[in-house]
Design a protein that fits this description.
This protein has 492 residues and is α/β, with parallel strands linked by helices. It has 2 domains: 3-47 and 318-479, Aspartate Aminotransferase, domain 1; 51-316, Aspartate Aminotransferase, domain 2. It has helices at 3-16, 49-58, 71-90, 106-121, 140-145, 166-175, 198-207, 260-263, 301-317, 319-338, 369-380, 392-407, 415-422, 436-450, 453-458, 483-491; strands at residues 19-20, 25-27, 33-35, 37-38, 47-48, 98-103, 127-131, 148-152, 154-157, 160-164, 180-186, 211-215, 239-243, 254-259, 276-279, 284-286, 343-345, 359-364, 382-383, 385-387, 425-429, 460-462, 468-470. The longest helix is centred in the N-terminal third of the chain and has 20 residues, at 71-90.
């Protein structure tokens, strides 16, 4: 084995166990207590302990940035600058051409910010192209800030939906040449884990004078990102946005990496302290240095440093290495679940046709998605997510035929309730800390549920909120955690 690979393997195995919450236990509907299996990482990841430890150490020196007059301020300013540069390096962005800045509410804030920037610097171009597979965070901002949005479909083969259709993307760009401002595309679907060819999409967009904005929320923790292709600059990405909480650092900000020559065409979106050079009674002068001009106010300094620490750890292991490890987990999960007769897996399952990572969405035929998720949690302590994952058009397209069959003949007075219960799927998602044992547990458990549908149906009812609730078992979280009890214990 290559010595470098061996070193990465050792570090990977070490870090894989270093996440807060992996050993958390809960009492189940059976009365037994077990360790949870966390398969909801696409929604948010667990905290990487080395990043948490670094932030804890940093807080002994914490002070505000934008000053070098005392020791703490010197340390905060220096390390906050390091965080920006570390992320630029991680995504392969040249610091001469690109800047990195942090935003408040994760990917959503960054995408809204860049949608407004693109709108204002290219006001004559009033159309955005968005793929049908987007999370609402990379769809609704463009509907709000552009006059028109055109949705591009995904490739469909043997009834399964795959990657975004680049052929149709180019056709739309060609037909609307001169009118398209930008293309907004997810790097990895948060529903199916399907990977999109973002650099090829950039090349096509640039051919028709459109920009490319990439939702990298699912990219950063799972695959290598290369915003710049030195051999083919047309494939360079104009703006990339991702979230710290999906990259092993809950409580950290969102990240925008964007070309400086785009941002410099207008005054920054947000104004306030830190982004101005001078302020007078009748006017102010904006800084021309990055990222200062894009970060008004006091930033989330500990969060940014923690996020960059997690990024640094990922880079030390190697994103190519991590992608291969996770692809193996996805392969095992797909192979195992496809052997269960009553399972429907959504999205193209053949990894030779369409690469996947991070997520698998499925349904057990004959069980509502909410009931499957509840049973996985209550009886087996496997944490998954269900419903439409903030990607309603994409999910509806995949389940529409099944949905129409399920609601056929339903009384119109009951149609809304039935539609709610059946409109969705179950998503199991993986991360650096996920293991083969987790995958095997998921497969065995789903198989067991599929073979005992009637029993589980008899144990649940739909409550007034439209959710499945166990008839007997009630989870009282105060026995496991509450903020008030923690405060009381600390102050006792």
């Amino acid at each position: 084995m290559n010595p470098n690979h061996l070193t990465k393997q050792v570090l990977f195995k070490k870090i894989q166990k270093e996440f807060i919450g992996l050993d958390t236990t809960y009492t189940l509907a059976t009365g037994k207590t077990s360790r949870r299996i966390y398969l909801d990482s696409t929604a948010t990841t667990l905290m990487m302990k080395p990043a948490f430890d670094v932030v804890s150490s940093f807080l002994h020196h914490y002070a505000n940035t934008h000053s070098l007059l005392h020791f703490g301020a010197k340390i905060s300013t220096c390390e906050y600058n390091w965080a920006h540069n570390r992320i630029l390096s991680f995504v392969g962005a040249d610091e001469k051409s690109y800047t990195c800045f942090f935003t408040g509410s994760g990917t959503t804030a960054g995408i809204n910010r860049m949608a407004r920037v693109f709108r204002d610097i290219r006001p004559e171009k009033k159309i955005a192209i968005v793929s049908i597979m987007e999370h609402h965070s990379n769809d609704l901002p463009h509907r709000k800030h552009m006059e028109k949005v055109i949705h591009v479909p995904v490739v469909k083969q043997n009834g399964k939906l795959g990657c975004v259709c680049l052929k149709t993307l180019e056709q739309i760009l060609k037909e609307n040449f001169g009118k398209i401002n930008y293309v907004a595309l997810t790097g990895i679907s948060n529903v199916t884990g399907i990977i999109n060819p973002i650099n090829k999409a950039a090349e096509i967009a640039h051919k028709y004078d459109a920009l490319l904005l990439v939702d990298g929320a699912q990219l950063a923790a799972h695959v290598p990102i290369r915003m710049v292709n030195p051999d083919n600059p047309a494939q360079n990405i104009d703006a990339l946005i991702f979230s710290g909480h999906k990259t092993y650092m809950p409580g950290s900000p969102g990240v925008v990496v964007a070309k400086k020559n785009l941002l410099s065409q207008i005054e920054p979106e947000e104004v306030g302290g830190g982004m101005v050079e001078e302020v007078f009674v009748d006017h102010y002068i904006v800084k021309d240095t990055y990222p200062d001009r894009e970060e008004a106010g006091t930033p989330n300094i500990p969060g940014a440093i923690g996020l960059a620490t997690a990024i640094d750890v990922l880079d030390r292991i190697g994103m190519d290495f991590l992608q291969k490890e996770e692809e193996e987990l996805i392969r095992l999960a797909l192979e195992g679940m496809q052997k269960i007769p009553s399972i429907t897996i959504y999205g193209e399952p053949n990894q030779d046709i369409c690469k996947r990572i991070a997520s698998i969405s499925f349904n057990i035929n004959g069980l509502d998605h909410g009931l499957t998720a509840a049973v996985l949690n209550d009886y087996f302590n496997i944490a998954v997510r269900n419903e439409c994952f903030c990607a309603h058009p994409y999910v509806k397209e995949m389940i529409m035929d099944d949905l129409l069959e399920l609601i056929e003949g339903v009384d119109m007075n009951d149609i809304e309730e039935v539609f709610h219960l059946k409109r969705g799927m179950v998503r199991a998602s993986f991360a650096l800390y996920s293991t083969k044992e987790d995958v095997y547990a998921l497969i065995d458990t789903v198989n067991s549920i599929a073979n005992n549908k009637e029993f589980y149906k008899s144990m649940y009812h739909v409550n007034v909120d439209g959710n499945y609730e166990h008839n007997i078992f009630k989870f009282d979280h105060s026995g496991d955690f509450s903020v008030e009890s923690c405060i009381a214990q600390l102050l006792d």
